[in-house]
Write a structure and sequence with these properties.
The protein is of the alpha/beta class. The protein is built from eleven helices and 18 strands.
């Protein structure tokens, strides 16, 4: 099988850097002191820095990033900007109906605010609020959304519209698409352009950004202290916004499982998109456990992604997760199955990396025992919109602002812990492979191997919001 070339970090980031590289942010090369030190130059860290400066311009903020800002998940995700309505049933179970509705409404607010922020700051992130469509792509997926729709109806929420097979295929005529649902108020964007735009804006606000600056040791203090190869940062407050890499910290090791997610992008083929009627700009996802997510670009490409079977538990957050050959092969096969009319369209690139999976499929926030270091993480692949909300939450925690964001019931939600080692590393690898194999069998219209099916269903039986 001819596989697409490995993109450097992601095709999104290659495109964004070519459009606007921005001035360099050199590594930290000396000791310094500041009011707030933020670890992580992704969406969470940069939105937190942005809102800190917006709410209290005199706050001195240092942001440390091991790569470049947007070099991690924030610059390589699918660009689906949504809230938490798709998690409504999970939130009701975790927070109760009132807490779930409050959290969903606040998270939805971020979708529109991100678009207005891009317009206000001249960030061309290809923001498009044309909705997301969830479709069944095999008989096993038919109607899996009914419980979510029933919960929304019970709570008088108008977020999802059910679609017939004909209505789905009127929007995108794939031969494997069946019935589905449509969320009209969701958006898509170019994730790396948003990340690089955020980098520019916070630098203009006076945030001191140090890229290619890996933190070797962190002490919560007070004061908080981040030690790097060539300098130290001492700060009154700290913010941990390190995503999947938080799993290396003892406190979060059993709260997060890093899992690989992979994307390919085609060369431009706008005439093929016209032929299948996919011209409305909808983001699309299916209802597999290791779901596929796909969207178009302004120049007529398809970006097509899925969760892989790779996990980074046990320190495995290395290059293998960035371009896992088996996961890319599976991705290409799934793309060809879904879009046979694109068989002659070249695949431009593929990439991947870890995302931070949690047991409840929800992010969590909190404060370390020292009282001066706050954290937010665990977006489970859906952080583009919620990270904006997280920036408001974490900036408020640092500044001691007791507003509606700080009082959200999600903020006090404790993560569900995964089993201890060695069960965590071994179990995560076995279960994720079983989930992918089960999905693949159902894609082919077959019954999964009974043992594979049993293993894939195990997390749900143990109370985790993972798997079928």
């Amino acid at each position: 099988m001819n596989l697409p070339r490995p993109a450097r970090r992601s095709w999104w980031l290659e495109e964004a850097l070519a459009a606007e590289p921005g001035p360099p942010c050199p590594p930290l090369d000396r000791d310094t002191e500041t009011d707030v030190v933020i670890l992580g130059g992704g969406y969470t860290g940069m939105w937190t820095a942005h809102f800190l400066k917006e709410r209290h311009p005199g706050t001195d903020v240092v942001l440390l990033e091991r790569d470049i800002c947007g070099g991690g998940p924030s610059g390589r995700n699918g660009g689906f900007c949504n809230g938490f309505w798709e998690e409504l049933d999970v939130l009701v179970h975790a927070l109760g109906p009132g807490g779930a509705l409050e959290t969903c409404r606040v998270a939805e607010r971020s979708i529109g605010e991100i678009g207005r922020w891009c317009e206000r700051h001249g960030v061309d992130a290809w923001y498009s609020r044309n909705g997301h469509m969830g479709v069944a792509t095999s008989p096993a997926q038919d109607g899996v959304w009914h419980a979510l729709v029933e919960e929304a109806t019970r709570l008088r929420v108008e977020w999802l519209e059910e679609l017939s097979t004909e209505e789905v295929r009127a929007r995108c005529d794939s031969p494997v698409f069946r019935a589905g649902v449509f969320a009209p108020r969701a958006a898509t964007l170019q994730p790396a352009r948003l990340a690089r735009g955020l980098r520019r804006v916070i630098a203009e606000q006076g945030v001191r950004i140090y890229e290619r600056t890996a933190v070797r040791r962190f002490r919560q203090g007070p004061p908080a202290e981040a030690a790097t190869e060539r300098g130290r940062v001492r700060a009154a407050y700290g913010v941990l916004a390190t995503g999947a890499w938080s799993s290396r910290m003892r406190r979060f090791h059993r709260a997060i499982v890093p899992r690989g997610s992979y994307i390919l992008v085609t060369e431009p083929a706008p005439e093929r998109l016209q032929e299948i009627g996919w011209t409305g700009g909808e983001g699309i996802y299916d209802h597999r456990s290791a779901l596929h997510y796909l969207r178009t670009t302004p120049d007529g490409r398809i970006a097509f992604g899925a969760a892989g079977s790779t996990t980074g538990v046990g320190g495995g957050l290395g290059p293998r997760m960035d371009y896992d050959r088996l996961s890319i092969e599976r991705l290409v096969r799934s793309f060809r199955r879904m879009f046979p009319s694109f068989r002659e369209v070249p695949l431009a690139a593929a990439w991947g990396g870890p995302m931070d999976i949690t047991g409840l499929h929800l992010p969590f926030f909190g404060t370390l025992p020292s009282g001066n270091v706050h954290y937010g993480m665990g977006y489970t692949g859906g952080g583009v919109g919620p990270c904006h909300m997280a920036g408001r939450i974490l900036s408020g925690m640092v500044l001691g602002i007791e507003d509606g964001y700080a009082r959200l019931p999600l903020v006090s939600l404790e993560p569900k812990r995964f089993p201890p080692e060695p069960l965590l590393a071994i179990g995560a690898a076995i279960v994720q492979e079983a989930i992918v194999r089960r999905d693949e069998a159902q894609d082919r219209g077959r019954r999964p191997n009974p043992v594979v099916d049993l293993v894939a269903r195990l997390p749900r039986r143990l109370g985790y919001e993972l798997g079928p």
